[in-house]
Amino acid sequence: MAVSVERIARIGLNAADPDRLAAFYEAAFGFLREGDVEWAAEPASRLFGMAVARARVVSLRLDEQRVDLVGLIPQGAPYPGDVPGWSSLFQHFAMIVPDMEAAYARLSRVPGWQPISQGGPQRLPEASGGVTAFKFRDPEGHPLELLAFPPGGAPEIWRPTSERTCLGIDHSAISVADTARSIAFYESLGFRVSSRSHNLGPEQARLDGIERPDVAVTGLSLPGGAPPHLELLCYRTEMDRAQTGMRAVDDVATRLVLAVTDAGTLSEAWESLAAHRVSAEPVIWPDGRTEALLRDPDGHHLLLTAPA
């Protein structure tokens, strides 16, 4: 059955130190702290499919997009070193900046991050959108991207109306082994193909920090069209992309939080996606919302959420 996901409501990052990481996002990009809550151990354990003694969530907002920094006890494995873009572990989110030079300068004044891109921000050829981009890792290893559209090329939603350094989160990109398989899976959740490009060449190599990249990029959007959207990155590589035991509590297990209309819709999705379950069962939280954790065909985590 097809599930009608309404939007990508937020992005969840596991964090060893949510306060320290929140301070980085505030200083480097202008995120605002919106909330700080604890999840009870029993429902958190059922959600993650393993024992969790404590879960604390620091919520951040950039424009209308949200990021949750989730601190877990016991803590999962730290982010595993330099995960390349072709790895099925790779997932990042991209923030739109109106002025790359100013955004890069602001980031450079904040300590703790590590570059992925070589030689600073890279302007890609027109065939790859003509954007200027820079990839890097936050202090705990999560990959991020700054993205600037060429002059006159920004969609209306990303045309600046203020002096903010970062305007918002445009998309989250995940590395996949088989584009057709991933499209079929995400179409079952209500996503539709909205763009395609083929990125390669020296500029892409410097951006990704990978020799001779050859990547098919497929944009997937939901009917409402509000950002962020999803991008599939399918690199042509002979490297082994098999995952090595990523758990939902590990720092590498970034989650897209997908909002559905109600608990009934969530339950129907849960029944139809039995092969992709992580949670033992859907969890009803004290505030009445229902949530369940899934994996896509490449192992990327998806949290379905329905309001009370």
UniProtKB/TrEMBL annotation:
Signal peptide: none annotated. It comes from the Bacteria. Keywords: Metal-binding. Residues 7-149, 168-307 form the VOC domain. Gene3D superfamilies: 2,3-Dihydroxybiphenyl 1,2-Dioxygenase, domain 1. It holds the Pfam family Glyoxalase. This is VOC domain-containing protein. It comes from Methylobacterium thuringiense.
